[in-house]
Amino acid sequence: MSDTVIPPAIPAFVLVRPQMGENIGAASRAMWNFGLDHMRIVAPRDGWPNPAAVAMASGAGRLLDEAKLCADLPDALADCDFVFATTARDRDLTKPVYSPEEAMNEARKRIASGQRVAVLFGPERAGLENDDIARANAIVSVPVNPAFASLNLAQCVLLMGYEWMRGGDGVVAHEDGLAGTQWASGQEVEHLATHYEERMEDAGFFYPAHKESSMKVNLRNMWSRMPLTRADVQMLHGMMRQMVRWKERD
Questions:
Q1: Beta strands 12-16 and 117-121: pairing type?
Q2: What family name appears in the similarity comment (predicted)?
Q3: CB-side neighbour CA atoms (13 Å) of 168
């Protein structure tokens, strides 16, 4: 087992008394999905190393190889400056309570200032005990269905890992998948609008005459509202040309 301290750029995820090796392995996969590779395991029920954990970890087995095995929680947190404890249940403890998103934002700020941060995850059956949470500086309250508050260990790890990754600079909140094309230019949209206006005028669409001007304005407005790609414009040109050819054949 590795006895290295927490790398300064990431928090440590601490699994407290985990019960099933499969869940430890699944948690390691969830961590590695989001670039987290510092795991600490406190008093696992079925001992350590655990073949079931290795089997479930798949490509994230390195995290298990480098995980730090700890006899108790004080040992696991000895080098930590700030600790979050995850829970889905109300606790009769006076502590700041964070959402998962804000907890990971706070973790980033503290890590950037040079602190070492850890996040605690409780055993599968009942979660963290109050004695565990008493050792934490803050609580992360996971919003779940109050009628079914039980959250799988690996799912909770995945949730926190996602929020950690989401707060980083590499996550794009929104982007358009253009499938190899580009957005149409104003000139291309104008040409398309003119093409349709001319063909529709030939077809007698703009009727009656006193409504022609407003109908053309509405049509132009429709084109300007549509987020058209160059591929869209080419297809719409082709559709109109084909309809005109079909009419002329008749």
A1: parallel
A2: Belongs to the class IV-like SAM-binding methyltransferase superfamily. RNA methyltransferase TrmH family.
A3: 13
